[in-house]
Each structure stands twice: as C-alpha cells, then as structure tokens.
Design a protein that fits this description.
- Pfam families: Peptidase_M23 (PF01551).
- This is M23ase beta-sheet core domain-containing protein.
- This protein is of the alpha+beta class and 381 residues long.
- The chain contains eight helices and ten strands.
- The chain is elongated and about 120 Å long.
C-alpha cells in the first residue's frame, strides 16, 4: 500500500515539474524589442538620400567641359560623398554592434536554458530507468480495484507525454543554440568586413583631399595653369605609351647599376625630374615594393620623391581613366646619373615632335629585362 502511494506521489510530482520547466523556458525566451533601432535606421536613410544627391552632382560635374572650377566641384562632392559613406559605415557598425550584443545575450540565455533542461532530462531518464514503466504496469495489475488501475495508468501516460515534450524542447533548444551561434558568427564576420570597408573609405577620403591640395597647389587656383597641367599629363601618358610600344633605338645590354642616362627636363616637363615606371605584362605596377625589397635598384641615389605611384588617384581617374600617377617622380638634381634598375637590353625612345608647352622633345630609356619586365626612365637629358 505504501509503495503504491509513493509511486503515485512521484507521478504527480513529475506532472507538476516538467510543465513548470517548459513554462519557465518560454518566459525566459520572450523576445524584447531592440532599443534605438528606429533612430539608427532613420539616420541611415537620411544619409543614403544625401549620397544620392551628391552622386548626381558628381555626374553633372563630370559631364561638363574640363575646367578647374568643375574639377573642384567634382573633388568637393567626392570628398563629401566619401565622408557620408564613412558615416554610413559607422552607423551600420553601431547597428551591428547592437545586434551582436543582443544575439550574445540570447545565446547565453539559451545556453543556460539548454543546460537546465539537459539536467532535468537527465534526472527524468534516471527516474524512468529506476521506475521502469513495464514493471510499474505489472504492479498496477495488482491494484486493489480497476478504478485504482485506471488512475495509475492515466498518470503514467501523462508523465510519458510530459517527458516527450521535455525531450522535444531539449532538441529545439539545441537547434536554437546552434542557429544563434551561427548567426553570431555571421554578424561578427559582417562587423570585420565593415571595419575593413571603413578603413578603405578613410584612405579614400585622405586621397581625395590630397588630390584637391595637389591641384590647387600646382595650378595656384588659376584656370590657365590647370589647362597646362591637363595637357602636360596627357602628353606624358601618350609619350610613355609610344615609347613602350615603339621599340626605340637599341643601345645594347646593360647591367644592374650601370649609368644609362642623366636627369633632364625634356618633353612636357616644366621642372627637372625623372619619371620612373615599371611594367609587368604590359601593365603599370607600383615599383616601390620591388625597389624596397631589392629586386630592383633605385634609379637615382637618395632622390627626393615628388609624386608616388598611385597618388592623386581621383584626379587621374576622372581626367585620364587611370588609377593615379603611373610611376614614381623623383629628382636628384639636374644632370644626376640614372642607373639601370636591373639587367636587360636598353633602348633609347624619343617623341616624334617637340612638346608645345616646353618646345623640347621627350626622351627616355626603356629597359627590357630578362624576366619580361620593362622599366622606363623618362625626361632624360
């Protein structure tokens, strides 16, 4: 009699405990709305509208005849656009940071629920093992009457149902935990990508501001000077392209470090300097990494750099369709020796006619290196 009473009490407790566990988990997982989300979205939408206005302004400036005023409008608009893009990226980062905090909290809460539910499930499994429903059913056959048996069977089936619900909830929690973990990882990857994008846009902003300073400095805010600059750069680009494609006069083999020319100011150069370029597969590449690593020798001794490769990207791209200055401009003084950057065959290249701006013919050395690279040394004496 006492044994049956104890079994009955255990069944009743099981019915009470398992539903309370499930209810507790449901209450804990009740989602709360994120704070400040609407404000960030409003900021983002306003930012994107301003960006669209600036893009129209940039397109309008690009469609106009090339002039200093149009160039300044273009650069100012591009600078403002990039500043807005930086602000946009920072807003998205703030939004994502809030999402990461929220998902992290959900993940921790789900982990607690999972651990708790796992513990309850383990307890129930041990209880089931000890009680053994089959043995209990056999014991029910020895009940005092049929009504007693029906009551016991009803409670047993109810406990089984609650145990199944508990196991189902455990499986759901495991899946939820896995999904939240994947979501958190995805958001962290997005955050890292946005940080890289932010760095890139900040670099672009500095480059655009540098292009504006360069243009204003070189032209002294004078339209005639600006038109001369456009013609000068266009002429240099065309001269170098002809020199690379035309072969020139073969001078013969040279060794790394041999003097191949002397610094001058021929062609459309308004001041003495050396334009040094590196071409791999017919495409201009940044020589600096190869010079710094020692693969190539610096063509001048202790030169002053006046313009690096890729500098003034936005101005060059807007006016000439190339991603910035296509070589390194340097000076070691008029008449300074110029050295071969590596072994190869040297050719003397000259323009077919004098530059209208200076009245001199552009001259340079092109070296065809054994590995297929080419280096060019322009504006020589």
């Amino acid at each position: 009699m006492l044994k049956r009473f104890v079994v009955l009490i255990l069944l009743v407790l099981s019915l009470a405990i398992v539903p309370s566990v499930l209810a507790f988990i449901e209450v804990k997982n009740d989602p709360s709305p994120p704070s400040g989300g609407a404000s960030l979205i409003d900021q983002l939408n306003a930012n994107l509208r301003k960006q669209e206005e600036l893009r129209r302004k940039i397109a309008e400036a690009q469609s106009k005849e090339k002039s200093l005023s149009a160039e300044i409008v273009y650069l100012d608009s591009q600078i403002a656009l990039t500043a807005l893009q930086i602000e946009e990226t920072e807003t998205r980062l703030a939004q994502l940071s809030g999402d990461i905090t929220k998902v992290t909290g959900q993940l921790e809460s789900t982990k607690q629920d999972l651990d708790y539910t796992q513990g309850v499930a383990n307890t129930r499994v041990r209880a089931i093992y000890k009680q053994s429903y089959i043995e209990s059913f056999g014991a029910f056959l020895g009940s005092e009457d049929f009504n007693d048996f029906l009551v016991r069977q009803k409670y047993t089936e109810a406990v089984r149902s609650q145990d199944l619900a508990l196991l189902k909830k455990l499986d759901d929690l495991k899946e939820e935990y896995s999904n939240q973990k994947a979501d958190l990882e995805d958001k962290k990857n997005q955050e890292e990508a946005l940080k890289q994008e932010l760095d890139k846009r900040k670099t672009n902003l500095a480059s655009q501001q540098g292009s504006k300073r360069y243009i204003l400095g070189v032209t002294q805010n004078d339209e005639k000077n600006y038109q001369r600059l456009l013609a000068q750069v266009q002429s240099e680009i065309e001269s170098i392209a002809r020199a690379l494609g035309g072969g020139g006069v073969r001078l013969g083999p040279v060794k790394r470090g041999d003097v191949v020319a002397f610094q001058g100011n021929t062609g459309c150069s308004t001041g003495t300097h050396l334009h040094f370029g590196l071409y791999i597969g017919g495409v201009a590449v940044n020589p600096k990494p190869y010079l710094d690593s020692g693969q190539l020798r610096w063509p001048e001794t202790n030169p002053t750099i006046t313009q690096w490769y890729g500098e003034n990207y936005w101005w060059y791209m807007n006016n000439f369709g190339i991603p910035g200055h296509n070589g390194i401009d340097m000076t070691a003084g008029y008449g300074a020796p110029i050295y071969a950057a590596g072994d190869g065959i040297a050719y003397l290249a000259t323009d077919s006619s004098a530059c209208w701006l200076t009245g001199t013919v552009g001259k340079g050395i092109v070296i065809h290196h054994d590995n297929g690279w080419r280096t060019i040394y322009w504006h020589i004496k």
